[in-house]
Amino acid sequence: MARQGITYEQVSAVADALMAEGLQPAIRAVRERLGFTGSPNTIHKHLSTWREARPVAAAAAPELPRALTAAIAAEIARTASEARAEIEARLVQAQGEATDLAAAGEALEGEKDELIEQVAALTSERDTLAGKAAQQSADLADQAQRIEREQQAAEAARVELATARLKIEAQAERLAEQGAELERLRQLLEVEGKARIGAEQQAAVLAARLEAATADAQRVGERAERAEQLAAQTAAALENARATAADARENGARLSGQVESLQAQQQAQTGEIERLRALAAKKPSEPKRAAGPKGGGAVA
Questions:
Q1: pTM listed for this prediction
Q2: Is the C or the N end of the chain the one with fewer CB within 10 Å?
Q3: How do residues 170-209 score in pLDDT, each as one tens digit?
Q4: Residue 24 contacts residue 30 (beta carbons within 8 Å)
Q5: Among candidates 117, 123, 94, 95, which has minimal Cα distance to 5?
Q6: Whole-angstrom Cα distance, residue 37 to residue 113?
């Protein structure tokens, strides 16, 4: 909406005040009194209307001779008529031009007011945009700080990711080593399982043997008990045998003497038999007579 321009009453009041102060109501003076508001064209139009409506004061003329006054009046009338005609023509032209200027001025004033309003709106929009720009600058600063923090966080995350990747690689190596160790342990476990099965089988055999040995031990215990009894009997018999052996030794010694005597006798008898056989061989026709032992017994 266009701004309200200055009115005729404002211009006429300022013009009257200037005239009262003895000053000419020129356009610039009126505009200064109005606070430099209003367009010069609008002020010119209102001043023209004010001048046309204001009565012209009659000037006091000096008294002259009537004939001179009539001649002067006639000349003045003629000159004034010519000047008036020329001035009226110029005035009509000037008024037309002034009207055109006033219309153009009013249009320009309206455009100026619209431009002022547009400038005010643009100024408000500029202020709003300036506030928005300041807010955007603050937001950009915040975003820059957030971006910097995010970049730092991203760098920290990248370092952490690299560290985690190294840890994962190390864990993968450890897992591979553990897998190999598990495979080795599995093989050992399989071998130990087979050995355990063999040991269990052997343990079963040994258990059977142990059971048999336990039974044998029981039997051996019984036998040992009987053996102890036999040993006691044998010990008693041994003592008897020792005593008998002592007797036997004595008897043996005695018998040895007897055996030696008998051997000597046997040797003597053998010699005698050999001698008799030799004699018998030499005298077959003679009847054989066997010489008896020295004790007087005959041999057949």
A1: 0.28
A2: C
A3: 877 887 888 788 788 778 778 877 877 876 787 688 778 8
A4: no
A5: 117
A6: 11
